[in-house]
Amino acid sequence: MKTPPLSLVMRAFLGTLLLLTLALPPLIPARPSTFPRSGLCGFCVAPLGPLTAPTTGSAPAAWGRGGITQTSGNGVLGLVAERVRSGKPKKGVGKSSSSSSKRWLNEHMKDKYVKDAQRDGYRSRAAYKLLQIQEQDSLLKAGNVVLDLGSAPGSWSQVARKILGPTGVIVATDILEMKPLPGVRFVQGDFLEEFSREEIALALEGKRADVVLSDMAPNLSGQKLIDQGRHYNLVDLALYMCKNWLKAGGSAAFKVFEGEGYSDCLAEMRSQFETVHIRNPKASRDRSSEKFLVGLGYIRQDSPAQPAEAAEPRAQDSGTVVDGQGAGS
Asked: Which of 62, 104, 105, 124 has an alpha carbon 20 to 30 Å from 98's alpha carbon atom?
């Protein structure tokens, strides 16, 4: 019996290996998170460096136009590493997605608050959520200094601008571009980056904010636990930014979604504010699980005189949470 040539054996081996490779769905390894766990709601938060406020000179007319790039990762701030398995799409997925998009668009165009926003000149229907919160809690007052996190497209800044009057200061920041608004100082960039934080300090002119707002929502993956974790990363960050920018006795309003980590965030808010209200604005969509936590009377652990470096987040096991909705929806 003749031994087959080595080339034929190798071809057979390589062919078998190729078939096995095609039969198995490829796996993209998760990118390990380089961020420590926070001591807030239990999700990843990047450590913030020292914050330096200017001691002399006036703030420039434009803020954050230097093209700050997004942090590596996924989602709005890219803080959740994940494992993604690719494969053939399930039958009917594309058709179902298209039908859902058409249904959402039809509902959106008929929505009362969408029409009201067009009539009143607001950039999105989300403006009415803040207006309804304002009716209940008088969160914003004339002459306040306000920091609006995740501000694009700008409807919350528009509401704040009308209430604050000519003496108020609004600093809006987002990783996304936001068209200019009269009387609003906008910093485009990731506020985890030192350069962006320096520009926020310049825009605030060395002051602490009276109010911190956050209507932030993550980019959605369609996977509930991943989206939930991404959202509570943002809540963590908003609370963490209060340690840097919110004055003693100040107020805050944050979007949250009911889920596994909701009670943890509520408890953390109650530990940092004298009073916390849970608000369900009528402008929130009926199918949405979003709520807004309104904190009044911020409790600072340091001197309120000057912005100080926030304490490093302590290690803590992570949790999961969600049902995210798009910002400005």
From this structure: 124
**Active-site residue (options: 129, 243, 247, 255):** 255
Q: Which residue type is seen at 103?
A: R
Residue 189 main-chain phi, psi, to 5 deg: 155, 175
Domain that holds residue 158: 123-301+316-329
Question: Within a domain: residue 269?
Answer: yes
Structural domain count, the chain: 1
Cα 119 to Cα 250: distance, rounded to the nearest angstrom? 32
For residue range 105-154, what is the model confidence (pLDDT) as tens digits? Answer: 666 667 899 999 999 999 999 999 999 999 999 999 999 999 999 999 99
Nearest alpha carbon to residue 72 among 30, 38, 27: 30
Q: Is residue 62 part of a domain?
A: no
Q: Strand 246-257's sheet: what is its strand order?
A: 184-188, 169-174, 145-149, 209-214, 246-257, 290-298, 273-279
Question: Would residue 255 show up in a list of annotated catalytic residues for this protein?
Answer: yes
Give domain status of residue 216, yes or no: yes
| 260 found inside a domain | yes
